[in-house]
Design a protein that fits this description.
The protein is an alpha+beta fold. It folds into 3 domains: 122 residues, Death Domain, Fas; 113 residues, 2-Layer Sandwich (Phosphorylase Kinase, domain 1); 140 residues, Transferase(Phosphotransferase) domain 1 (Transferase(Phosphotransferase), domain 1, Orthogonal Bundle). 34% of the residues lie in helices and 15% in strands. Strands 3-4-5-7-6 form a 5-stranded antiparallel sheet, with helices on both faces. Helix 12 runs antiparallel to helix 14.
C-alpha cells in the first residue's frame, strides 16, 4: 500500500523516478525510437490544433545529444505534460516494452492499452530456445485523456540555434534591462511559480529565515507538504548589477549540475523559480543545518560524537569521489568548506553550493584566469599558480577534517594556536 500511495503522487514526466527514466531512455535510444515518439507528439499537437510543430531542425539538434530521449522528455516535461500522455503515445507506437516501465504510474483503467501487446510464444524445440513474437495489430481504442494545462506539446521549435524556454528567462518586469541576460535551464528539475514560494514561506516571513549571505537569504518553507529551504538570490545595492548577474549565472550552473549529479551525499535540488521578482532555488531542508554551525555549537546544539564525526567525514569523501570520477571529466566543486556541508535529520552530510563548480581535465590541471573559493580552504599552490584540479577539493577536504577533529574554525584572526604531542595525541591550546 505504501508503494501504491507513493506512485499515485507521481503524475508528471519530470516526476518520473531516476531508474524508470534511465531505463526508458535506454530503450527508446535504441534504433532511434525516440524519433518516432517525437513524430507522434507532433501529430498529436496538430490534432489538438496547437501551433507547435516538430521540424527537421529539431530532430537534427537532438541527434547530436548523447541521450536524445532524455532531452526530448526534458523539453516536453517543462510544460507539465503527464506520464499518462506519454503512456498513450507509446501505445500508439506499439512500444509495449517501454510501457511496462510506466504502467505503475497510470490509472488501472488505462492498463488495457498495454495489455494489447503481442503474445510471446517460446518454441521449446527451437535451437537456443529463441523467442518467436507473433505480431498482431493493436485494437483501435478510443480513450479520452484530459490534456495538460499547457497549450504546447513540446517546447518551441529549435529552428533557432539554441532556444530559451520562457520559464528560464530572467524577468524584466516589462522594462528594458540591459543588465538582465537570458538564461537557459534545460533540466528535469521542475520550474515553480514564484507565488507558490510566497505562500510556502508565509509571505517571506522573517521568522522563517534560516541564514543570510552574499547571495541573499535562505528561508524555511513548506511546499507541496514538504519541508524545504528556499534560497532567494537578491541584488544588493544600486551598483551591483554585475555581481547580481554573476550570482544568477552561478545559480543556473548549480541547477544544471544538481540535475546531472545525484548522489546520497549531494544536496538535492527540488525545484527552481525564475519567473518572479527574485530568482529562487528550492532545496531539501537539512534539519541539522551546516557542519560549520554544528561544530560551533550554534543554537545550543550538542557536540558531535567521534562516531558521528567519522561518518560525516566518510560521507563527504564519498560525495567528492563521485563528483571526481563519475563523468568523462571530473567535476571540481571549488568551494568545499564546513559551511557548504549540510546535515540532514540523521546527520548524513550533503555537499551543497555548486555555484563555483567547474569541469576539470581527466588527468591534469588547467590554468584558470580567476581564483574563486574561500581563502582558508585553498592551497597556496592554487592561489599563486592558478592551476585547477581535483587536488583543490582534496586539500579543502583536509581542512574540513581539521575542523572535525578539533572543533575549531579554519581561520580565526583573534586566535593564535600552539600544539604539542602528548601520549601520541595532538593537543591544541591557545597561546597567551
Amino acid at each position: 500500500m505504501a508503494t501504491s500511495s507513493c506512485t499515485d503522487n507521481i503524475k508528471y514526466i519530470y516526476q518520473l523516478p531516476f531508474f524508470e527514466r534511465s531505463e526508458l531512455c535506454k530503450i527508446l535510444n535504441q534504433n532511434d525510437k525516440w524519433e518516432e515518439l517525437a513524430e507522434r507528439i507532433t501529430n498529436w499537437a496538430i490534432h489538438l490544433g496547437t501551433w507547435m510543430t516538430y521540424d527537421v531542425l529539431t530532430i537534427q539538434s537532438l541527434r547530436k545529444e548523447k541521450n536524445p530521449t532524455d532531452e526530448l522528455l526534458t523539453m516536453w516535461g517543462h510544460y507539465n505534460h503527464t506520464i499518462l500522455e506519454l503512456f498513450v503515445l507509446l501505445s500508439r507506437m506499439q512500444h509495449y516494452q517501454s510501457m511496462v516501465l510506466l504502467k505503475s504510474f497510470v490509472e488501472e483503467k488505462f492498463h488495457k492499452l498495454q495489455s494489447n501487446a503481442p503474445k510471446i510464444i517460446v518454441e521449446k524445440n527451437a535451437k537456443d530456445e529463441s523467442h518467436k513474437i507473433l505480431n498482431r495489430p493493436m485494437q483501435a481504442m478510443k480513450i479520452e485523456i484530459a490534456p495538460s494545462n499547457s497549450n504546447n506539446l513540446l517546447v518551441a521549435s529549435l529552428a533557432a540555434a539554441n532556444p530559451v524556454p520562457a520559464s528560464s528567462r530572467v524577468p524584466t518586469s516589462g522594462k528594458k534591462d540591459n543588465c538582465a541576460p537570458t538564461f537557459r535551464t534545460e533540466t528535469t528539475i521542475p520550474h515553480v511559480p514564484y507565488n507558490e514560494l510566497t505562500i510556502a514561506t508565509k509571505e517571506w516571513n522573517a521568522y522563517n529565515i534560516l541564514g543570510k549571505g552574499g547571495f541573499g537569504i535562505v528561508y524555511r518553507g513548506t511546499w507541496k507538504n514538504t519541508d524545504v529551504a528556499i534560497k532567494r538570490i537578491q541584488k544588493r545595492g544600486a551598483d551591483s548589477d554585475e555581481s547580481h548577474i554573476l550570482q544568477l549565472q552561478q545559480s543556473v550552473r548549480e541547477i544544471k549540475i544538481l540535475n546531472s549529479y545525484r548522489h546520497e551525499n549531494i544536496l538535492p535540488l527540488y525545484a527552481y523559480s525564475l519567473d518572479g521578482k527574485i530568482p529562487c532555488l528550492i532545496y531539501q531542508l537539512m534539519k541539522n543545518g551546516s557542519l560549520e554551525d554544528r561544530l560551533s555549537l550554534k543554537h545550543k546544539s550538542q557536540p558531535l560524537s567521534w562516531i558521528q564525526r567519522h561518518e560525516i567525514a566518510k560521507g563527504i569523501a564519498c560525495g567528492l569521489q563521485y563528483l571526481h570520477t563519475v563523468g568523462e571529466k571530473p567535476l571540481i566543486h571549488g568551494d568545499i568548506k564546513s559551511a557548504n556541508i549540510l546535515l540532514d535529520k540523521n546527520l548524513e552530510p550533503r555537499i551543497g553550493d555548486f555555484g563555483l563548480a567547474r569541469e576539470g581535465l581527466e588527468r591534469d590541471s588547467m590554468k584558470v584566469s580567476k581564483i574563486h573559493g574561500t581563502r582558508p580552504y585553498l592551497p597556496e599552490e592554487f592561489l599563486h599558480g592558478r592551476k585547477l584540479s581535483t587536488k583543490i577539493d582534496t586539500y579543502s577536504y583536509g581542512i574540513v577534517l581539521f575542523e572535525l577533529a578539533t572543533g575549531l574554525s579554519a581561520y580565526d584572526e583573534s586566535r593564535t594556536l600552539n600544539f604539542q604531542c602528548k601520549n601520541n595525541t595532538l593537543e591544541f591550546y591557545k597561546k597567551d
